[in-house]
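Subject: sequence -> structure tokens, single chain

Hey, anyone have a minute? Need the predicted structure for the following. Not urgent.
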Amino acid sequence: MPKSRSKSPVRATVRGIADAAGVSIGSVSSVLNNRHVERRISPATVEKIRAAAAELGYLPNISARRLRSGGSSKNTVVLALITSFEAPIPLVKHFIAALQRAVAAGSDHSFSLLIEMFPAGHLREMPGLLTGDHFNAALIMNTTAADDAFLTRVHLPYPSVLVNRAIPGYASVVEAVTTGARPAEILFRSKRQRLAVLHGSPLTQSTRARVDTFMQRSTQLTGSAPAEIVAENLSEAAGYEALQAFLERGGKCDGLYAVSDALALGAYRAIKERGLTIPADMAVMGVGDYDIAPFFDPPLSCVGVSHRELAEQASALLLQQLARGAEPGRTVAVPLVEALRASSGHRETSSLG
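Reply:
Had a minute. Here:
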């Protein structure tokens, strides 16, 4: 009988499966590559090999397969979209669509896409990150300061682009560093004086910039520092719990800036449960303009970068590296766009394309 997967400390191999199943390496290779019919391997042997592979936790070695196959497969890119578990990932679909458009426009490469997720602050523990065993290109997003410090110290041996963080030596796409200043100006122009910012923990490079610039601009405009409301993470539930606790402590706010649309949605519930209305009692602004933002009640005002544009620029940077080699340190800044809706007391206007 094959050993339990939990007892196997190393990656399962073809030889290991052959030993466990009591068959030849050639038979295992034929079954794993779905060539058992033409090789006339019996159904009983096929089932035994598959059971051993499942028990041992076998995963194909993509690097070895690329080396063996040769030929046109050199243009096949196994691309990882890398993000943390704690962060919302609506951005991912925009990257997939952007890559599809690039391929349709005549890219010399074809793509296999993986979504790789890691606990915030633990990017360094991701298998294959430093070796390229699991993927040979990457778009990396939603890293924390600890993750960014790790990336600063290492070299990734494949084309990679960082999203919404700039680190020396890496290609990156970033939003304007003053993202948070504009919501402060919009809320102040709407006659709001008691401002607050709602953010998750830990902060990323981009969310830290949003918080800092909002607080700086709010202080300049109102003469007092805004309240800082810290949620456990970036989820809707965390946003709800953080604002609920703030209001129960007697916190006062008539203008709220949430650094993600998910946090804003949670805040909506806390505001309404308190018997307050949006925007009469509290205007709310978010970031990201997710597809659901216009369907909030009332529709959510957002300031930030266009996710489609962010994905287009990141995909373009990656394709440039694949075509001409790496361009170390190149950073592309994506301009801000506004979608002003009822949550901030506006009739809907949008600069989104």
